[in-house]
Structure formats: C-alpha cells, structure tokens
Amino acid sequence: MVTLRTIVQAMITVIISYAPFELLRLTLTYSETYASQGPFVGAFALEMFVVAVGWILAVYAVWRRI
Questions:
Q1: What pTM was estimated for this model as a whole?
Q2: Residues in CB range of 66: below 8 A, 6 or more apart
Q3: How many Å apart are CA 24 and CA 2, to the nearest integer?
Q4: Where are the transmembrane segments (predicted)?
Q5: Three-class SS of residue 1?
Q6: What's the rounded Cα separation, in Å, for the pair 63 and 36?
C-alpha cells in the first residue's frame, strides 16, 4: 500500500533531481539578460541564486529526515 510518506519522498526526490538544472538555467538567463543593466540588477540575480540554493538545501534536509 502506498503511504503518504512514500508519496512525499517521491515528490521531494523529483524536486531534488530537477532543481540544479532549473537553477542553472535561471542563473544563466538572469546573468545574460541583466548583466549589462548595472550592478543592482546583478546583485538581484545573485540574491535569487542564493535563495534558490537555500530552498534546495532545505528540501534536501527534509528529504533526509523522512
């Protein structure tokens, strides 16, 4: 029987396996689009990168606890 725990583990595994590629795509998109528009926009792209990495690590930590 499929339990809620199995479903949550499967969902988190999919997120963990897909997230690095999406993170790389977003980072490259931001850097190409906003690099010529000044340092503040570049700082925003860096902040988005750091937040995304934080979310990935948080999801991974939850996955390890299950």
A1: 0.43
A2: 5, 8, 9, 12
A3: 33
A4: 7-28, 40-63
A5: coil
A6: 39
Question: Which parts of the chain have pLDDT scores under 70?
Answer: 1, 30-43, 45, 66
Q: What's the pLDDT at 66? A: 61
- The number of residues making up the chain comes to 66
DSSP conformational letter for 2: -
Q: CA 27 to CA 12: how far, in whole Å?
A: 22
Burial class (CB in 10 A: 0-12, 13-18, 19+), 51: exposed
What gap in Å lies between CA 33 and CA 9, rounded to an integer? 36
Q: pLDDT, tens digit, for every residue of 39-57?
A: 666 667 677 777 777 887 8
Could you give the 3-state DSSP secondary structure of residue 3? Answer: coil
Residue 22 is which amino acid?
E
